[in-house]
């Protein structure tokens, strides 16, 4: 018993194999305690010793007990079995091996499972070290911990089920010894049964062989006499007189004489009476052989030299196939007697007629035999054979039409060969003739040749059916060929006819690009078959084979066209799904389409949509015999109905708003992924252009179209480029209500060309906040993901490419500039069915702003550089120097970012920039009529002033805390700042503050722009004579300090010198704040003014040779 498990305690070799060694072992779990008693043959717990057997019977006699003891004390024999019984151990698996293997497997899987659990995600709390104390923690219910517990529990349950099975096997193995005994006994019984069967078969074979070994009893008497004397007198004898034998020479002479007599007779005496059909004969071996091709050969001879005597029959052979090689004995005797009788009466002419009619009858019989055989084998159920007197009738295609339908048959009979009212022709003879009735009509004009020398009923039927099939296929071919698709050679149509082999005749029609359907007619059943097999051709077969009252040419052409339409619809539906196309229900009625398109022929209409199209767009295909037409249709599902027209007088269903013919190739398209991809591109281009042209007309934007080569479109298709007037697009009112702006930096037209289609992605091109192209992403994100996006390329040529020299390559991901050609290229994206005009206008406005900005930077003489240029952002770095001074001194560069994405430009400065206090004035500047024209100048020229003002504020911070004075800054404009100093009054009187107001203005002097700093107090006295005047005059008239004294004010260039001047003024005023107010009452000497003028003259002379103070250096004036 293969697969039996032996309980061997993990070891196999040292264990006993006695059948009775385990009696009572492991009963009720007492195996270990019963070991010593079991060796003595005594069961545990049995006070009577070895008096119980396996079945529980008691009172075993002493002999049995002694036998058990004898067996147990003799371990030399294996199992103590008789020699006839063979102990079976093949296929046994030790229990220890099973347990060890399972334990090893469980251990390995547990280690792998623990490793897998360690790789799972760790709970967040444990990962961050935020787990609570073990004493107060609750059970971890995190998803990660629950997943680990579930995985571990499933593993334990699986292993538990395996060990439970092992436990059951262990329990069963306690009776393994009894099962082993049963296996050994069963093996002995089967061995004996096999031997019995072998012996029985051997006895039967010997008995059969003895039958053929039996010999009859020998005739010993006759054998002994014949062998002794050579004769047997009791044997009969007829006593014939044998003629003298002819020698070979005599035999040859006799045959030559007979041949000579036959030759003389046939060429002289019987020449005129010889039938025309017997003109072909040969004389040899004493006989004449007349040969009638395709009928028979007959051997005749003569028995007398007299020419008046008759010929005699010798042999007859059929000269057609199939025919018997030789006649039967009975037929030969009858035929010989009949031929000899005819030769004696009618001579050779009568012999020919007899044998000719006999052969014709036999041919008809052979035709009938083959027809009956065909009707029972390959043509079963398709033929109806009827034997007439000397003719036969075969009806073919029996099941093709119903019982009351038209029938087709042939009649094969014998024609006499005589013509009506014509003398008898000796050359003419009766022959087989064939009449064909096609669907109850005899086809007299069609001659069907058949070869009766090689008789084949199947070939005869194939010749008839081949012509019948040719008529059917030819009529369908003629009907189809007259239609436009095949007349214009837009589709292939082939007719191949084999009149003698209908299985090779076919009509092949092109359904698709490289897919043809082949129509054949079965020669046996007459049913149509369409190849290659598919569901569509199967339905076409059923329709073609369905009885119809229509002519077969009309009905067949309609069925084949229906098959083509179904194939095209199925192919488009099946192949188009992977590329986003699907067949949908027609949105409008057929009458509406016919009225709108004014089609002469309406075939089968197929409506298609592309995923991503809006609801109003459809693609319609008109499948007809005159040619397939593709139309792009726009359907209005909710047409407007005038209130003055009653609703019951109008059909308010969907209407066709617009339609466009798609100029596809006149041949069948190749319905592969490339075709649908090209169709998607072309239809999307048409929809996009129609939508854009409609919106351009609605917005009264001047535009025109121009045909050109567009390599983005599929081969053979053209979409004209659209040229839009730039000024009409930029005339959109600005946010500040300014006048329309004309773009002098570019030519006044924008070329828009279609470039491609793709599914939408989550990445946006630019932040077009005010663009309203179709449905926004925030309103309907699901619809936006399904929408189809079109790409258009807008080209804009600038008038002066040098103005954009700072631009290099890609301005942004979707905007590029070619400095060599001076052309901006914009990549526009819009949903199919939505216009791109808003996006285009937004981009062009951004380019207009960008053009002003980079042109201002290019024209500026200040040290300002472009760090980053995009369509929505320009980042510049600048210093307070001129371009000619760039690099002479190490100056920190500040960055400014100009945002061009929205209608109003925004300027942002980095943190710590001293110009942040006048950021509002910068915003007002860039959004004014000047835009970015003066931005580079003010960024650079105001930097040293703002840097100096930062130092001024820092210097007065401690003084303001101690109430020793304060300073206030007021920026009127970027070129006008007011600096107010407030010092406490005399004797620290709060209400009597001392005030000094300085005005910093940018003015033009000597064709240069300089900063002028003067004192301008409110009231009538603009420059009172006080301590501030003394301090300021001392600064203004200082020598060799980098600024010019203008009596009551000072001027300096727009570089770091203006900062030095402001710091010097601030230092002088801070000294007043730190000094006692009483000491400041002393008047200034009168001659000081003259000294100031002299100092100014000296300064102007030595200004060029003196070293300039560096930026940030505090100027200390001498007392």
Written description of the protein model:
The chain has 1119 residues and is α+β, with helices and mostly antiparallel strands. Helix content is 36%, strand content 20%. The protein is built from 25 helices and 37 strands. The strands form eight sheets. The chain has a seven-stranded antiparallel beta sheet with strand order 21-22-23-24-27-26-25. Strands 32-33-34-35-37-36 form a six-stranded antiparallel beta sheet. A hairpin with an 8-residue loop joins strand 5 (296-302) and strand 6 (311-318). Helix 3 packs antiparallel against helix 5. The longest helix has 48 residues, at 329-376. It is elongated and about 195 Å long.
Architecture blueprint of SSEs:
Blueprint: E1 5-6, H1 35-39, H2 62-72, E2 93-94, H3 95-118, H4 124-127, H5 143-172, H6 176-212, H7 220-229, H8 248-269, E3 281-284, E4 287-292, E5 296-302, E6 311-318, H9 329-376, E7 383-387, E8 392-396, E9 408-415, E10 431-438, E11 441-442, H10 457-481, H11 484-487, E12 493-496, E13 506-510, E14 516-521, E15 528-531, H12 535-545, H13 552-576, E16 581-584, H14 590-597, E17 604-610, E18 617-623, E19 629-636, E20 655-661, H15 673-698, E21 703-706, E22 721-724, H16 726-730, E23 750-758, H17 781-786, E24 789-797, E25 809-812, E26 815-818, E27 823-831, H18 837-859, E28 862-869, E29 873-882, E30 894-899, E31 906-909, H19 919-926, H20 935-941, H21 943-955, H22 957-961, E32 966-973, E33 976-983, E34 994-1005, E35 1008-1015, H23 1027-1036, E36 1044-1045, E37 1049-1052, H24 1056-1074, H25 1088-1102
Parallel strand pairs: 1-2
Antiparallel strand pairs: 3-4, 4-5, 5-6, 7-8, 8-9, 9-10, 10-11, 12-13, 13-14, 14-15, 16-17, 17-18, 18-19, 19-20, 21-22, 22-23, 23-24, 24-27, 25-26, 26-27, 28-29, 29-30, 30-31, 32-33, 33-34, 34-35, 35-37, 36-37
Helix pairs in contact: 3-5, 10-13, 12-13, 21-24, 23-24
